[in-house]
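Input record (Table S2, row 246):
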Amino acid sequence: MTRRKLVAGNWKMHGMAADLVEVEAIAAAAARHSGVDVALCVPATLIAPAVARAGALPIGAQDCHAAAKGAHTGCLSAAMLREAGASLTIVGHSERRADQNETSQDAWAKAAAARQAGLSVILCCGETEAERDAGRAERVVQAQIEKSVPEDASGDWFTLAYEPRWAIGTGRTPTLDEIAAIHAIARAKMRQLVGDAADGIRILYGGSVTGTNAPAILSTADVDGALVGGASLTAEKFVPIIDAAA
Ligand code: PEP
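Output record (phosphoenolpyruvate complex):
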């Protein structure tokens, strides 16, 4: 099955009002490429102003709480993010797994809450360096998918992102063969979980994607796009990745 490529940016804890000019420039570039989907996940404080400047570019969040409301100081529900203008959210990012001890079960609950609120979801999985060195990368990713992917996942709202933790922000990437191998395993696992719907679900690669390595990574078997951190912060760095996907 042919799946449209998706290039999604993750600004992490970067971005002030002055950076909204980058949103505009990225939106303009995305509008030039009708054959590729582009989205930008900004800090929650920037969702509403980014939406106001983004035109047709979908603006997303980077996390949501699993509950609809309640005594959770400092947290944001999926419905709040939706109301602020987000159309998608990342869940299960490895930085949240590491910094906030989030589990695959948490990611599952957050994905379900996001779906309930009308948000699309990019759910992240990926092994640590120690797990890869121990030859366990494939088993770790399979287990994460099994525990975190909602049983009603389908391509119209759900995207999986394979992000080896040791590749995030390090400038290091797996080989193309290693990326292809994990993506094939991830797709097979998804098929076990959701059946034929797996064919419509995009699997993105994330971890130190740049304008230089994007053409090769995005041409790798079963890679349906990229989740991009550092290189999504400016149009100058992000647009070549969008170009490579087009
Ligand atoms: C990410 O944060 O999801 C990511 C892939 O970061 P980077 O591109 O900076 O490695």
